[in-house]
Amino acid sequence: MRHWLTAFLLVPLLARADDLATRAGKLHSAAIVVDTHLDAPDQLARTWADVSSRGATDHFDIPRARQGGLTAPFFSIYVAASYADQGAARRALELIDLTHRVVDEHPRDLVLAASPADVRAAKQAGKIAVLMGIEGGHAIEDSLGVLRQMYRAGVRYMTLTHTNTNHWADSSGPFYEPDFDPKKSVVHGGLSEFGKTVVKEMNRLGMIVDISHVSDATIRDVLAVSRAPVMASHSSCRAISNMPRNLTDDQLRQIAQKGGVVMINVGSGFLDQKVYDQFVAGLAKMKPEYLRIKAAYAQDPARMREEMTALMKRQGKPPRTDWTKVVEHIEHVIRVAGEDAVGIGDDFDGIPDPPVGFEDVSMYPRLTEELLRRGHSEAQVKKVLGENFLAFFARVEAARDKLAGEPPATAVYTEK
Ligand SMILES: [Zn+2]
Q1: Which of 8, 67, 97, 257 has the fewest beta carbons under 10 Å from its own?
Q2: For 69-115, what is each residue's pLDDT tens digit?
Q3: CA distance 28 to 70
Q4: Which string of DSSP letters, residue by residue, matches 196-260?
Q5: Residue 130 has what DSSP assignment?
Q6: What residues are labeled active site?
Q7: How far is the CA of 135 from the centre of ligand 1 (A)?
Q8: Nearest Cα to 336, choosing from 229, 414, 252, 406?
Q9: Relative orientation angle of helices 144-152 and 193-205, to the nearest 10 degrees
Q10: Measuring CA to CA, which residue among 237, 212, 118, 102 is closest to residue 158?
């Protein structure tokens, strides 16, 4: 009798869970899923792998992307700070070439894309649309001609800085270094005059201006000067995890008011204050040894790198938060900046600490199910997954079209 009763009581519950899973599955496979920051090219440049085989990079390959229903990843053309004034444009071109080679190797699964229309066409054709964004404005080597050539090569966004302040824009700095001091990254107090010209020329071209990594003053200047809406390609919310790479509620609101989007980074420190605090405590602990190595091998960069890598290794694996934190950040942006302003830019292959339960590109369907479970409408979920980004990208194109009569900027960098 009791068993019968239990079964009777459980049936409606199970049916409801089943319903939700079916509804989420259907919605997810019909939806456009965009991810604006994936560091696969950097990993593939170190160790070439066939992306059709599982485990090609830490967090990406075609089988896992298919499982995750991923429609459109932005491959990051990440130019490390060490390339500044030392072959930065060459590095960018090599990673653009690498991206082309990856796509060319898998024509049945991948197609290069450069517009919202391309992304929708890829979805129709059952393919994954690969787009490109440059990370680190030093990649254009202070040349508007190089910027334009990057656009012609297919690049559709540029993160104005990486962790290094360049010749025309301040960065929020290298927060992961034990002697990190944000004041050291302040050179221009935001964008320099040339920096403002770079942003305006990006608007004219239709290249998305990305304010992840830049300083608060640079964000302020970009919002004032940009003639198109702007994006944070892989940043989360400071109200939840107070770290320099995340955005304040005011910034979230201002980006949204301008028609921009904030794409949530899933690094555990970006998501969870406790994890970030632990990380900062770890840095303080390693600081004396870090400074000793820095001083001892100032004349021997190879040895310094070796010693630093060993020091990092001794710190052990970074702590990881739970995947539902991703949903918390998404909901925070919706609350503060509205439902049109948020998406996913997880930073896979660029972070060592994705949350437990959201380890790679196969996991996006969890977000869909959890957002539905929390009562978001199907239309809202589709916005988060990709429609917000595509609508934003279309607004950037519309701003470009309005500037069609403007000649290319001819400013030459002379601030050095
Ligand atoms: Zn980054």
Answers
A1: 8
A2: 999 999 999 999 999 999 999 999 999 999 999 999 999 999 999 99
A3: 9
A4: HHHHHHHHHHTPEEE-TTB-HHHHHHHHHH-SS--EESS--BTTTS--TTSB-HHHHHHHHHTT-
A5: E
A6: 37, 39, 135, 162, 213, 234, 347
A7: 7
A8: 252
A9: 30
A10: 212
Instruction: Read off the DSSP letter of residue 59.
Output: S
**List of residues 6+ apart from 173 with CB closer than 8 A:** 163, 165, 180, 181, 182, 184, 185, 215, 244
Query: In the structure encoding, which two tokens stand for residue 134, read together?
Result: 């440059």
Tokens of 147: 């910027």
Measured in Å, residue 224 CA sits from the centre of ligand 1 at 23
Say how far apart CA 380 and CA 388 lie, in whole Å.
Answer: 9
* Distance (Å) of CA 230 to CA 85, 90, 211: 27, 26, 7
**Cα–Cα distance measured from residue 229 to residue 31, given in angstroms and rounded to the nearest whole number:** 24
Query: In this structure, which amino acid lies at residue 47?
Result: T
Q: Measured in angstroms, how far is the CA atom of residue 228 from the centroid of ligand 1?
A: 22
Q: In degrees to the nearest 10, what's the CA dihedral of 312, 41, 200, 170?
A: 10
Return the structure tokens found at 300.
Answer: 């021997």
Q: 139: which DSSP letter?
A: G
Q: Could you identify the residue written with the tokens 């607004």?
A: 395
Residue from 165, 155, 90 nearest 415 by CA: 165
What gap in Å lies between CA 375 and CA 253, rounded to an integer?
Answer: 23
124-178 per-position pLDDT tens digit: 999 999 999 999 999 999 999 999 999 999 999 999 999 999 999 999 999 999 9
Instruction: Note if the pTM is more than 0.85.
Output: yes
User: What radius of gyration do the chain's Cα atoms show?
Assistant: 22
Residue with tokens 């990709």: 386
Q: How remote is the CA of residue 403 from the centroid of ligand 1, in Å?
A: 30
Q: How far apart are CA 383 and CA 377, in angstroms?
A: 10
Tokens linked to 173: 């700095």
Q: Residues 318-344: pLDDT tens digits?
A: 889 999 999 999 999 999 999 999 999
